[in-house]
Amino acid sequence: MTGTAAPELDVVEWFNTEEKLTLAELRGRVVVLHAFQMLCPGCVASGLPQAKKIAAVFPRNEVVVIGLHSVFEHHEAMTPVSLAAFIHEYRLGFPIGVDRPGGDGPLPHTMAAYGMRGTPSLVLIDRAGIIRHHAFGAEDDLKVGVEIALLMAEGRADD
Amino acid sequence: MTGTAAPELDVVEWFNTEEKLTLAELRGRVVVLHAFQMLCPGCVASGLPQAKKIAAVFPRNEVVVIGLHSVFEHHEAMTPVSLAAFIHEYRLGFPIGVDRPGGDGPLPHTMAAYGMRGTPSLVLIDRAGIIRHHAFGAEDDLKVGVEIALLMAEGRADD
Amino acid sequence: MTGTAAPELDVVEWFNTEEKLTLAELRGRVVVLHAFQMLCPGCVASGLPQAKKIAAVFPRNEVVVIGLHSVFEHHEAMTPVSLAAFIHEYRLGFPIGVDRPGGDGPLPHTMAAYGMRGTPSLVLIDRAGIIRHHAFGAEDDLKVGVEIALLMAEGRADD
Amino acid sequence: MTGTAAPELDVVEWFNTEEKLTLAELRGRVVVLHAFQMLCPGCVASGLPQAKKIAAVFPRNEVVVIGLHSVFEHHEAMTPVSLAAFIHEYRLGFPIGVDRPGGDGPLPHTMAAYGMRGTPSLVLIDRAGIIRHHAFGAEDDLKVGVEIALLMAEGRADD
């Protein structure tokens, strides 16, 4: 889906933010969308630590990190109650939205709209709302940092 | 409590074993008791991988690894339903017992009986049922392997 | 020295490059200067792997990685002959220069000119030849990637 | 060679010990022989840290760790002068012997006598001087700790 407009988030509950976030309102900033499941080993070992680092390195008014809890298996084991404890124990400070459960199948709505193949998935959305990077699995910190920085710089150059 | 008889396990539900385990019936073998919580970062990062490795290295008829899910916080987030999914996702194959929830306070029964200070906690019980090692927090793989091997060898020497 | 013009390199021997490199001729590109010693544990464990990664991620016509072998101790143990074997064994592919040994004291010339406090040291020089980052010790991959990318983007914006 | 008598060490120079070590005089103790090259990345990353850990965990009067600098390539780059600086920088405290250079080929004498395939190589010799473990490449800390502890315990059982 790289190169196309990022579908709006469909979230039923937010953590770490008082107001609901929408991509529409974040237009003008780079959005780092990190889809995870709290019981996914790869998310815990690499994806979420990377998301924390990104949130710490970039200024919030330029780059916004959003966690998306996209549960597509063991639904009864990863309820918002369990997620709240997980967020507390792992000291996650960036906004996290619970992806709306699917009606027919196991896939939640936002995950399906983005065509994600599993968790962790990382989607980078540029200041204009276009998907510029869309990947499944662990990714190298240095490489990801470079990609986000280049997207951040694009906007500046347009000023 | 090192040097004293190991209190019996008080478990309400077992995973990865068809029969309930008791220290009484395991007398004659070394028991490696690994107390954890599924949402405890230190358990996920170091304690449980170490327990898996111990279970893989030692012969089961000499050394038995038992996981003890000792929940003392976020009780509603770490129910047996969530634990079952966690065990599946993290590919834990050794027997795991759910420590009996405490009546009055947050501490479950076995955890309280052993005077554990938190999770992960590692308790090594010799072939005679005596506690020989009792520690809280991450421990070095090599050191732990040595301690268990020496306990295992003790029994052989007595033959 | 951040904000000042980068002193020219003073190198007695080059590896991995047929022509001698000078900052003067690299003007217009971002230069990543990584000072190390082959027997410095921190360089081997984190600095050099990071330099390799930087060289792999960025296009050579925009960002040039230069290793600088700045020996300030155990001089007789880290001669160019030993360095050649080290470069081969550690599969270092980017250009590496041997910092000119100091006449009076233990510090080699380029290291002294940059006021480096030890190894590893990382210096980032922008397209205009100005030092923009100057640090001693291990640095986070993601953070370093971001800094270099922003320097790289600066140039583009000016076009 | 597992199960056969360990060939005597053939060493031209010792570090970290005032007296020359021989397997003959160490009979009665377990000997951990760690063959390495100072410019071998696998030795630096895993073999030598493991040897340090073994030396720290086991009592010296039961288990003796010996490093063997078995240079079979880049001979001019890994002279005893360079090795001395390496030992200092990597804070290696156990006895290290320089394997006697081979006359005809690149392999040093002790390495050839043991039929080692490269570095790092780990050889475990029991209290009776018999080779009990002989492996090339990185090995798991827990597993190695267990093997050494069982060899150490053997002696005790015989008392």
Structure description:
Four copies of one chain form a homotetramer. Chain A is an alpha/beta fold. Chain A has one domain: 3-Layer(aba) Sandwich (Glutaredoxin), CATH 3.40.30.10. The first copy, chain A, contains five helices and six strands; from the N terminus they run βαβαβαβαββα. The first copy, chain A, has helices at 23-26, 41-57, 80-89, 109-114, 141-158, and strands at 11-15, 30-36, 63-69, 96-99, 121-125, 131-136. In chain A, strands 1-4-3-2-5-6 form a six-stranded mixed beta sheet. In chain A, helix 3 links the parallel strand 3 (63-69) and strand 4. The longest helix of chain A has 18 residues, at 141-158.
Helix-strand layout with pairing:
4 copies of one chain form a homotetramer.
Chain A: E1 11-15, H1 23-26, E2 30-36, H2 41-57, E3 63-69, H3 80-89, E4 96-99, H4 109-114, E5 121-125, E6 131-136, H5 141-158
Parallel strand pairs in A: 2-3, 3-4
Antiparallel strand pairs in A: 1-4, 2-5, 5-6
Number of helices of chain A: 5
What is the CATH superfamily classification of chain A? Glutaredoxin
**Architecture of chain A in CATH?**
3-Layer(aba) Sandwich
Most extensive interface, chain pair and sizes: A-C, 21 and 21 residues
Share of residues in helices of chain A: 25-40%
Q: How many structural domains does the protein architecture of chain A include?
A: 1
In which order are the strands of the major sheet of chain A placed?
A: 1-4-3-2-5-6
Inertia-based shape of chain A: globular
Poorly predicted residue ranges of chain A = none
As a whole number of angstroms, the C-alpha radius of gyration of chain A is: 15 Å
CATH topology of chain A: Glutaredoxin
Percent in strands of chain A: 15-25%
List how many beta strands of chain A DSSP finds: 6
- The H-and-E topology of chain A, N to C, reads as EHEHEHEHEEH
| CATH class division of chain A | Alpha Beta
Question: By helix and strand content of chain A, what is the structural category?
Answer: alpha/beta
From the N-terminal CA to the C-terminal CA of chain A, the straight-line distance is 27 Å
- Oligomeric nature of the chains: homotetramer
- Sheet having the most strands of chain A: 6 strands, mixed
Indicate the mean pLDDT of chain A.
95
